Amino acid sequence: SQQGEEDPQALSIQEGENATMNCSYKTSINNLQWYRQNSGRGLVHLILIRSNEREKHSGRLRVTLDTSKKSSSLLITASRAADTASYFCATPDRGSTLGRLYFGRGTQLTVWP
Amino acid sequence: GAVVSQHPSRVICKSGTSVKIECRSLDFQATTMFWYRQFPKQSLMLMATSNEGSKATYEQGVEKDKFLINHASLTLSTLTVTSAHPEDSSFYICSARDPRHLPGYTFGSGTRLTVV
User: Fold this and answer.
1) What would the DSSP string read from start to end of chain B?
2) Chain A closest CA to B31's CA: distance in Å?
3) If DSSP codes are grouped into helix, strand and coil, which group holds residue A46?
4) Which among B43, B51, B93 has the least Cβ separation from residue A105?
5) For an engineered disulfide with B2, which of A36, B40, B62, B106 has Cβ 3.0 to 4.6 Å away?
6) Residue A3: pLDDT band by 50, 70, 90 thresholds?
7) C-alpha–C-alpha distance, residues B22 and B27, integer Å
8) B30 — phi, psi (to 5°)?
9) Angstrom distance (rounded) from CA A69 to CA A87
10) Would you call B108 exposed, middle or buried from its count of C-beta atoms within 10 A (0-12, 13-18, 19+)?
11) pLDDT exceeds cutoff 70 at A2
12) Is the distance from CB of A19 to CB of A13 less than 8 angstroms?
C-alpha cells in the first residue's frame, strides 16, 4: 500500500520561480525521503529528513516535515528547465524488518524556459 | 556511491512468452532487493521484496506464480514475468538495499516491458 500522497499531481512553472510540492503520509515514520525521476528512468535520491528534524536544506532544495500533521513539503528554489521531472516522497515501512519503501503518487513538475 | 544495474532497459515480447529482468548491485552486496511496477504517469507500486537465499515476500494482490523472483546471490535478483499478457506491459524498477549509507536504497534505471 502506498504511504505518501503528493499534491499537486502536476505543476507547471517558469524558470526562476519556486516550486513547492507537498506530501502526506499515513503512519508513523522514522524518516521521509524525496526522489526525482526523469521520464522513463530510475529514481535518484534527493534528500532524507528524519522524524526528529523539522527542516533540511540541500542546495536549492528545502524540505520540511510536520509529524503532527503527517506531512512534508519539498521546495525547489530558482527552478531550472533541467528540474523538469517527477518528484516522489517515500517512507520506509516501520512495521517490519524488510525495509520496504513505499511511494506517494508523485508530482510531475514542468519548468518552462 | 552504490550502483545498481538493471537489464534489459527495454524488451518487447509476444503474449504467452516469459521475460526475465535482471537487477545487479555492482559495488556492494545486497541481501535485500525490491521490485516495483510503474504505470504511465503513476507512482511506483511495490511488488515484492527479494531476500538472498530465501523466498521473496510478495505484496498483497501480486501473483507469485506470475512474477517469479529469484535472489540467488548477494548481487543479483531476477524478476521473471511468466506467460506475459499485454496487461503486463509496464515499467519495472528494481531497488537494492545498501544499509551502509543513508538513505540506503539505490534504484536501477528500469525496464520497459511491452507485450504484443
Assistant:
1) ---EEEE-SEEEE-TT--EEEEEEESSS--SEEEEEEE-TTS-EEEEEEEETTS--EEPTT--TTTEEEEEEETTEEEEEE-S--GGG-EEEEEEEE-TTSSS-EEE---EEEEE-
2) 10
3) strand
4) B43
5) B106
6) low
7) 16
8) -120, 105
9) 20
10) buried
11) no
12) yes
CA dihedral A5, A11, A15, A17 (to 10 degrees): -70
Compute the average pLDDT of residues B62-88.
95
Cβ-defined contact of B103 to A88 (cutoff 8 Å): no
Dist. CA B79–CA B60, nearest whole Å: 17
Q: Between chains, do A106 and B43 touch, taking CB under 8 Å as contact?
A: yes
Q: Which residues of A touch B95 (CB under 8 A)?
A: 43, 101
Residue of B102 and A66 predicted with greater confidence? A66
